[in-house]
Structures are given as structure tokens and as C-alpha cells.
Specification:
258 residues; single chain; alpha+beta
Length: 258
Amino acid sequence: MISHLNLAIKAARKAGKIHKKYFGCKGGIKIKSSSFDLVTRADIEGERAVVSLIKKYFPQHNFIAEEEKYARTDSEYTWIIDPLDGTNNFSCGLPIFCVSIALTKGNETILGVVYDVMRNELFYAEKGRGAFLNRESIKVNSADSFEKSLLITGFYYNRAESMVETLGNIKEFFFKRILGLRRFGAAALDLCNVACGRAAGFWEFELSPWDFAAGRLIVEEAGGKVTGRHGEEIDTQKKSYIVASNRKIHEKILEVLK
């Protein structure tokens, strides 16, 4: 029987092939809940391919995914899937997007896989076994002050209060003399960039489970920390305000966001 991790990697690579197939195509883009929330053929086909492959080996497992709803079973295992994180980037021809796959057992996330097919970067982690990028062990960076810290943020589709608050946070971080700030538009990759030390921290106002479940475990297994905005534990199966860091500057970030 194939292991959960190898299956997740196999499924992620399958979705990556679908990303490449449709990248650069202008057709097949639809609007979901708002004019800023898009879905493409790659989202839909990618999710179906990932779910179909996993169900082939584990038909009784549960699924939480972005594009479709799935009937609940009595299994203790749940796969949390974003078939294409960074859809708006993808639809505009910007090559910053990925597939994100996590597996939970009960309330515990036991594995996470994030695959960026355009850069051929495969991030993965299993609970208690460390985090990896293309088979090489990764760790968060050692920045211990804002002056040494590159931060990443994201904007939710809501262009009202959450946007105003995020912009206010950005202003305050710059007044605190952070090294720099980036906004890439793919939360799963943002978390992985913290995990491998490219950035010292990341925050976003509201993320769905499929946006952060895999990346959260990868950050934690790389030595980092992931909480809510007040330092609280987050529920992997609910929408959450996410703060991730190299651990050393976590409290400093929370002080700005509270």
C-alpha cells in the first residue's frame, strides 16, 4: 500500500501537470463569490484529479476542498485540498501558484505537501519528521529583529474593513523599520517561504483551511510558529486569521497586529 506522503506527492505532481497544461490559456475563467474571486479549468480539473487519485487508495477518507463539497464518512482521516492556490495570479499569467494538500487524523495535521510546478519546488512535511524542499531539509531563518526581517502578507477578497486594517498594519510595520514586505498572492507558498527561511514572517486576515493547512505544518516542522492574531491555537478545519514566523519575532508581529 502506498504511504500517505507518497500519495500526496503523487497527487500534487498530477495537479501540477494540469496547471502547466492550462497556464497561459485565456478561456475557462469564471467568477465565484465576488468579482475578485476566480475559478479556472485548472482549479476544477486539478481538484478532481487529486480527489480521484486519493479515493482510489483510500475511498473512505473525508475531503475538504475549495471547489466542491464532499459527503462525510466516519473515517478519522480528512484530506484538505487547494487544487490551485493563487488562481488570480494563474489567470493573469503570473507564475506564482501551487497545489496544497494536507492530511489530518482527528484534530491533528499529520502531513502537508505544497507543489510549485513552475519553479519545480516541492515542499513537504510529516508530523515529527521535519520539513523538506526537494528532499533537502529546511529550517526557518534566524532573524531576531524587524530590521533583519522580510515579511509577507496577503489581502482577502473583502475590500472593506479587512483591507483597511491590513493596510494599517503594513504602515505600522514600516514605521517599525522592517527590512521589507512582499505580497505574492498564494498563501500556501507564503507559508513555505517562511519555512525555508526566505521570509521571517507572514500574516493574512482570513484564510480558509485549504489555504493554510499544509503550509502550517511545513512551517512548524521547519522550526517556526503559527497562531491566530492573539497568539491562540488555530483550528485547521475553520477559517482563521493566520500569523506565521520564524518563532524569534512572533511576539513582535503579534504586538503590531493586536
